[in-house]
Amino acid sequence: IIHLYGQLDLLEWQSNEGQEYSSHKKFIERLRAAPKNIKLINDERGVEKSEDFQKAYDLIKNASRIMFIGFSFDETNLERLNTSLMRGGKSLISTGLGMEPSKYRWVQKHFFDKLNENIAIHQGKDGLSLLHDELHIE
């Protein structure tokens, strides 16, 4: 999992320190630090300078299955991801919980027009359900 724009905090298993959320003081400290973990991409600091985007491109090129979890399919984000790297019969799967029908149709058309590939959008599934079903995680 690559968080291209950062994440508010590390999860317990992502840190050697083991996060402690039980104390109010620790929680407030972590809350104040959260904005520093967000990465903004703009014209001066474009995707070509982002190590995370470069890592994502390598993973996309070599993947046989790509899963979008909680992804809004914003046109700018799709452009930055370089969806052309997803060609070649890769399995494309996405959550779509709460996705409007017009957005669903737009995403389907986008992937078919750009890649001549279909994307399986599971409209009734959240990320955990999709991971459980696709990766057989218990």
What does this structure look like?
Helices cover 38% and strands 9% of the residues. By secondary structure, the chain is mostly helical. It has a three-stranded parallel β-sheet with strand order 1-2-3, with no helix packed on it. The longest helix is centred in the C-terminal third of the chain and has 15 residues, at 101-115. It is globular, with a radius of gyration of 17 Å. It starts with 23 loop residues before the first helix and ends with a helix.
Show the helix and strand layout.
Layout lengths: L23 H10 L17 H12 L2 E4 L6 H7 L9 E5 L5 H15 L4 E3 L4 H9 L3
Termini Cα gap:
18 Å
What class do helices, strands and sheet pairing give? mainly alpha
The ordered H/E elements are HHEHEHEH
The main pleated sheet reads as: 3 strands, parallel
Label the overall shape. Answer: globular
Strand order of the largest sheet: 1-2-3
Helix content: 25-40%
* Global mean pLDDT: 83
Unreliable stretches, pLDDT < 50, 5 or more residues?
none
Number of strands: 3
SS element count, helices: 5
Taken as a percent bin, the fraction of beta residues is 5-15%
| Alpha-carbon Rg, integer | 17 Å
What labels would you give this structure?
globular, single chain, mainly alpha
Brief write-up:
This protein has 138 residues and is mainly alpha-helical. Helix content is 38%, strand content 9%.
